[in-house]
Design a protein that fits this description.
Jelly Rolls, alpha+beta, four-stranded antiparallel beta sheet, 2 domains, Arc Repressor Mutant, subunit A, three-stranded antiparallel beta sheet, about 15% strand
Amino acid sequence: MNVLLEKVLHLTTLDEPFKFYDSKHDEHYHEELEIARIMGDGKITINHVEYQVEVNDLILINPLIVHSFNCEYKSLLVNMEAIGLNTMDIVTKKYIYPIYSRTIVFPAIIKNYEILNIVTQLFLTLENTEELYEFEMKELIFLLFHDLFRLNLLTAPTSINILSLEKISTALAYIEEHYQEDINIDILAKVCGLSSSHFMKTFKQKTNQSCNEYLIEYRLKKAQELLELSDHPIRSIVYEVGFRNVSNFNRLFKKHYGLTPEQYRKSKRK
């Protein structure tokens, strides 16, 4: 099985948060939400399970879910930061973040005329990109989520799950504000009012990755931004984003992006 890791910064950005995408037929995954309309009968796989699809079936794929298409289709990627992932208001806590973290998972195939109509409007809006189209894109995406819940195609998490999400949201906010500092599990657990063991278990359940993995990815993302947008020396960037060892940073960056920090910077400035 050939699984390709395609990170959000390679596909969408906050300046271009909505993007048509012709993915490879090999199984792969990425951090964006994917909205696909099937244009010809065939097969898809989601989490290694194969499904038969037909024209006008809708496929909505949560971030980081392994999938592939073996059919004709049209696909749109949505950067979830652009629709409020980091805002952590009640809408994000109850609906957006659970979709991102896979606490709420889309059905494999959606056959519904109302949802199809919204997806059709989304594609047309992105194709035309008329003035102020970004407002319409966000409006339609929220309408899509609203109708998926209204039609019971998605189920909101319980109040217990919401409480857990709020605690993890507190940890994520702390990381966002203090990623340049030394952060460990005990600090984050204390911030959330949990024991270290309970915090680690809850974090893993709600994000499908360990806290350390999330922290490393967040710091690498900040490093990527500085490499692309600043002239800071690479050694300086290492410490600016919270790493304490240059060789370890170089190894992690290359593993994550497929390029050394120097190669990445050069590739963005050609």
